[in-house]
Design a protein that fits this description.
globular; 87% helix; mainly alpha; 0% strand
Length: 52
């Protein structure tokens, strides 16, 4: 299941974070990082998915 979440995180980083932790601090932080730059959003999303 983590492989699917990582693939989703590469395409849509906030969705990958949402599937892992729901709406919370990491979700909103990921939206901000994705808006500031797509690559930081991807890195953060993968970090959240691997960490939990």
């Amino acid at each position: 299941m983590d492989v699917i979440r990582i693939l989703i995180a590469i395409l849509l980083p906030p969705l990958g974070v949402f599937l892992q932790v729901g709406i919370g601090l990491h979700f909103w932080l990921n939206i901000l990082l994705t808006l500031l730059g797509y690559i930081p959003g991807i890195i953060h999303a993968i970090w959240v998915i691997i960490r939990k």
